Amino acid sequence: MKYAVIAISGSQFKITENQVITVDLQELEAGKKTTTDQVLLFVDDKITKVGTPTIKGAVVEYEVVKSFQGKKLDILTYKAKSRYRRHTGFRAQLTDIKILKINN
């Protein structure tokens, strides 16, 4: 089985070809193809390459599927006996990307 570990948007992901993953917002249009050279690990049946910190010459091609907002998180703060209540919210900006090809 062929897979790799890559770093995108400050996070690491274990990926395979034709997989769709959700990452933090990428400032790219839907349908746009791009590459990343931040490949930390590559495994293909009998071949294993570990980067220090990245593998030289390894490239992952991916395509942006869509950008969207994540679920709303409600943050509530409460202090007993003082009538202090505070409500804030957060909604993550996310992007789905499809891994097209892993080149080592």
Number of helices: 0
Rounded radius of gyration (Å): 19 Å
Helix content: under 10%
Count of distinct strands: 8
Percentage beta strand: over 45%
Lateral arrangement of strands in the main beta sheet: 2-1-5-6
How does the major sheet shape up? Answer: 4 strands, antiparallel
The rounded distance between the terminal residues' Cα atoms is 14 Å
The SSE string, one letter per element, is EEEEEEEE
Q: Mean pLDDT, as a whole number?
A: 95
Indicate the low-confidence ranges by residue numbers: none
Count of separate structural domains: 1
- Decide which structural class fits the backbone: mainly beta
Based on CA inertia axes, which overall geometry fits?
elongated
Summarize the structure.
The chain has strands at 2-8, 11-15, 20-24, 33-36, 39-44, 47-50, 59-79, 84-103.
Describe the overall structure.
- The relative contact order is 0.31.
- The protein is 0% helix and 69% strand.
- It has one domain.
- The mean pLDDT is 95.
- It has no helices and 8 strands.
- The strands form 2 sheets. The chain has a 4-stranded antiparallel β-sheet with strand order 2-1-5-6, with no helix packed on it. Strands 3-8-7-4 form a 4-stranded antiparallel β-sheet, with no helix packed on it.
- The protein has strands at residues 2-8, 11-15, 20-24, 33-36, 39-44, 47-50, 59-79, 84-103.
